[in-house]
Design a protein that fits this description.
alpha/beta; five-stranded parallel β-sheet; four-stranded parallel β-sheet; 11 helices; 9 strands
């Protein structure tokens, strides 16, 4: 019964948004506009998904415990004024008609509980970019644009020397061609949980690289803070979140969410064992320059 009431309330609130009865003052660029901005400029990107918005409210996430300093820091990053650091948020305020049913319900529920957080902290004079740039497969009722989107995304790091900062389970690009267009790939492997506490060591490892490197970040909430720090030091940084997961689902044409075997392989020893049956993990180990 509680679930049914919540669904009804979420649907009503979203209806009021779509009809303009609840004033929508938040503007979000399309996925195409977001990809083009990254492809055609040297801008960096920090992405806010539902988790970061919830954490601003002080709620723990599965892989990161909340803390006042994290919430306050996220608010500052959300309103960071430099146009060369693209800030993305979910593009859910005008319509969800292009979302599949499960995604539509998820974002209606999210907006029901987080609407006031967006309205309080998002700048009405700013056009944000779309967080769905890195989650562009699962949500869609029509997935025909994914071929074009991922082709353009892969061009962003074409012939670039890339440094991936990721958790022990993530394995960005392992077993697929997401990163094959890069000239080189190196990896910094970070704690799988509460990476925020390891930021000093993670940042120190990143700063050993020259400024010509392109950093791709996948360490959850900690990515927001690392992205800003590296951006301020003069690096180009893209907070890509779970893009690799979406790409895997796209490549497999998965009808729904599905687990990936590589996410169960954790740590150097497990990856060495996996390399005995799949060369991709041997290449991964060669790319790892730092375990934190």
């Amino acid at each position: 019964m509680k679930r049914k009431i919540k669904d009804i309330l979420a649907a009503i609130v979203y209806f009021l948004y779509e009809k303009g009865i609840l004033h929508n003052r938040i503007r979000v660029h399309s996925i195409d506009e977001t990809i083009d901005a990254l492809l055609n400029t040297g801008k960096s990107m920090v992405r806010f998904g539902d988790g970061e918005i919830v954490m601003i409210k002080g709620v723990d996430l599965m892989l990161q415990k909340a803390a006042p300093e994290i919430g306050e820091g996220l608010v500052r990053i959300l309103s960071y004024p430099d146009d060369n650091l693209i800030v993305t948020i979910p593009g859910i305020f005008d319509t969800l008609s292009d979302h599949r049913k499960a995604s539509r319900q998820f974002w209606r529920d999210h907006l029901l509980f987080c609407r006031k957080t967006y309205e309080k902290y998002c700048d009405p004079n700013r056009a944000y970019y779309s967080t769905f740039v890195s989650r562009c497969y699962y949500y869609g009722s029509d997935r025909s644009n994914c071929d074009r989107w991922f082709a353009k995304i892969r061009k962003i790091w074409e012939n670039r020397d890339v440094v991936i900062v990721e958790g022990t389970r993530t394995h960005n690009g392992v077993g697929n061609d997401l990163l094959d267009s890069a000239r080189s790939v190196e990896r910094i492997i970070c704690p799988p949980k509460d990476a925020y506490g390891a930021l000093p060591a993670i940042t120190e490892a990143c700063l050993r690289y020259e400024k010509d490197r392109l950093f791709l970040l996948s360490i959850g909430v900690a990515s927001k803070f690392l992205a800003l720090s590296l951006f301020q030091e003069g690096y180009r940084v893209l907070d890509i979140g779970n893009m690799d997961l979406e790409y895997e689902w796209y490549v497999r044409q998965a009808p729904d969410k599905m687990p990936l075997e590589k996410h169960e392989i954790t740590g150097e020893a497990a990856n060495r064992e996996a390399a005995l049956r799949d060369d991709a993990y041997g290449i991964y180990l060669e790319q790892v320059k730092c375990w934190l």
